[in-house]
Write a structure and sequence with these properties.
CATH topology of the largest domain: Transferase(Phosphotransferase), domain 1
Strand content: 15-25%
Shape: rod-shaped
Largest sheet: 5 strands, mixed
Helix content: 25-40%
Family: Belongs to the protein kinase superfamily. TKL Ser/Thr protein kinase family. TGFB receptor subfamily.
Distance between the termini: 118 Å
Order of helices and strands: EEEEEHEEHHHHEEEHEEHHEEEEEHHHHH
Oligomer: single chain
Number of domains: 3
Keywords: ATP-binding, Kinase, Magnesium, Membrane, Metal-binding, Nucleotide-binding, Receptor, Serine/threonine-protein kinase, Signal, Transferase, Transmembrane, Transmembrane helix
Structural class: alpha+beta
Radius of gyration: 43 Å
Number of strands: 17
Number of helices: 13
Protein name: receptor protein serine/threonine kinase
Membrane topology: Single-pass type I membrane protein
CATH architecture of the largest domain: Orthogonal Bundle
Subcellular location: Membrane
């Protein structure tokens, strides 16, 4: 106990806690009572800070116990401190309990014992946040990769071991193609994953707008691997989706083998694996090679056949939707060893869903390469919701490709009669034309590539010249269809031993 019981009466200074609401400044205590002084922190709005507020008075024995008066400083949760006495009259006038200041929000002092140094604390917090963000990013990338693989059927149950076992049983790539599901949409899913893991890159063979193409090997078979730029994820999506369309496989469409996403830890590679053709693109082939009429006819017919397969819908339980390429040009056509061609690069292609009568077209209707854009694409008069409009735009570009090939075709007995390679509109627009350049030439002036007079002297060139002019007609409704072009070229007789069927 911090006070003694005695039988006497003492007076305390009273202010703010006087019994019976007395206001004479004093109150009396008897045995067991004490005088007290209490200080609390009160917020002053004018000073915008806490100020001390003192209360004086008398406590009976019961009140003293309730307020935990122990004769010394006692802090309270509501920012109060109290001090008591009983040794003399008015003893509490001189009591000054310690003012309970509120804790400040300031960080612990640098190098002090009450906390970490501020710079160390800041570094620790920054490191922890960075670590958390890194973990979140890694989880996001992994989930994103799995989502992509699930979307296109590339992430299958059974894992890599099942795919490897399938490959070992069925032999090389050619055999695997034959053992596929027959859907015409590439190899079985598990084998796709296996091949992408076993690809051996040899060297780069070209770089385009969407990525870089490499010559590679898989178990002795040469394949082409297109590695997409990280900014061209949507192009990989679209091209993979088109290639995996049911009944897509055709001799004049680039053979699809597999698609996969490979993560290296720091970045992700989007791969598209297809057949490899030594001759490269038609654009490269025409740079230093001349064609004969029979060779021109074979190439033109094969391109028309591939385009007709794309444009045609195949009905049935496992039917094929109609597809528009939307980026036909000589750089997107490959030359095969047998002299035929096949269509490649489907990053801008669209499908026509006949049941729903709708197509998935990006907001930008100016699709493809500016030099090969149809007039309706250049002047924005095309109806992007019309699938027929996209097919006729393909035919316009195909007409320009026929012109490129015809320039490099020799007439007569001398190969020197073939003209040097030139791109369409080479003589009226810059090397890298803008939309405005092409609009002025194709739509405003109505310019078309010049048809050489010498072509009239050869049956093949004469027919191809008529076809190309009908393909690039300014009125889309007048243009030939791919099927019509295919049939026209099939009927053409030549003096060579090549028979178009």
């Amino acid at each position: 106990m911090y006070y003694l019981f005695f039988f006497s009466v003492k007076r305390c200074y009273c202010e703010g806690h006087c019994p019976d609401n007395q206001h004479n400044g004093t109150c009396e205590i008897r045995t067991g009572g004490v005088c007290f002084t209490l200080v609390e922190a009160v917020y002053d709005e004018e000073k915008e800070r806490d100020v001390p507020f003192y209360t004086y008075g008398c406590l009976t024995d019961d009140e003293k116990g309730f307020l935990q008066c122990k004769g010394h400083l006692v802090p309270h949760e509501d920012m109060k401190s109290i001090q008591c006495c009983h040794d003399k009259d008015m003893c509490n006038v001189d009591l000054r309990p310690a003012y309970p200041e509120r804790p400040t929000p300031e960080a612990p002092g640098f190098g002090t014992a009450d906390g970490l140094p501020f710079t160390l604390l800041l570094t620790t917090v920054t490191f922890c946040l960075t670590l958390v963000l890194l973990v979140v990013a890694v989880v996001f990338v992994k989930n994103r990769r799995k989502e992509v693989q699930r979307k296109f059927g590339l992430y299958a149950k059974g894992g890599y071991h099942a795919g490897e076992k399938y490959a070992e049983v069925h032999g090389p790539l050619a055999s695997l193609i034959e053992q596929s599901s027959g859907s015409g949409s590439g190899l079985p899913i598990l084998v796709q994953r296996t091949i992408s893991k076993q690809i051996q890159m040899i060297h780069s063979v070209g770089k385009g707008r969407y990525g870089e193409v490499w010559l590679a090997k898989w178990r002795g078979t040469r394949v082409a691997v297109k590695v997409f730029f990280t900014t061209e994820e949507q192009s990989w999506f679209r091209e993979t989706e088109i290639y995996q369309t049911v009944l897509m496989r055709h001799e004049n469409v680039l053979g699809f083998i597999a698609a996969d996403i490979k993560g290296t830890g720091s970045y992700t590679q989007m791969l598209l694996i297809t057949d490899y053709h030594d001759n490269g693109s038609l654009y490269d082939y025409l740079q230093d090679r001349c064609l004969e009429p029979a060779g021109l006819l074979l190439m033109a017919h094969s391109i028309a056949a591939g385009l007709s397969h794309l444009h045609t819908e195949i009905f049935g339980t496992k039917g094929k939707p109609a597809i528009a390429h939307r980026d036909i040009k000589s750089k997107n056509i490959l030359v095969k060893r047998n002299g035929e061609c096949c269509l490649a690069d489907f990053g801008l292609a669209v499908k026509f869903l006949s049941d729903a009568k709708e197509i998935d077209v990006p907001p930008n209707v100016r699709s493809g390469t500016r030099r090969y854009m149809a007039p309706e694409l250049l002047d924005r008069s095309i109806d992007p919701t019309s699938f027929e409009a996209h097919k006729t735009a393909d035919m316009y570009a195909f007409g320009l490709v026929l012109w490129e090939m015809s320039r490099r075709c020799a007439t007569g007995d001398l190969l020197q009669t073939a003209q040097p390679y030139a791109a369409p509109y080479y003589d009226c627009v810059p090397a890298d034309p803008s939309f405005e350049d092409m609009l002025a030439a194709v739509c405003v002036k109505g310019v078309r590539p010049q048809v050489a007079a010498r072509w009239e002297g050869d049956a093949v060139l004469r027919t191809v010249a008529k076809v190309m002019q009908e393909c690039w007609h300014s009125n889309p409704a007048v243009r030939l269809t791919s099927l019509r072009v295919k049939k026209t070229l099939s009927k053409l007789d030549t003096d060579t031993s090549i028979k178009i069927v």
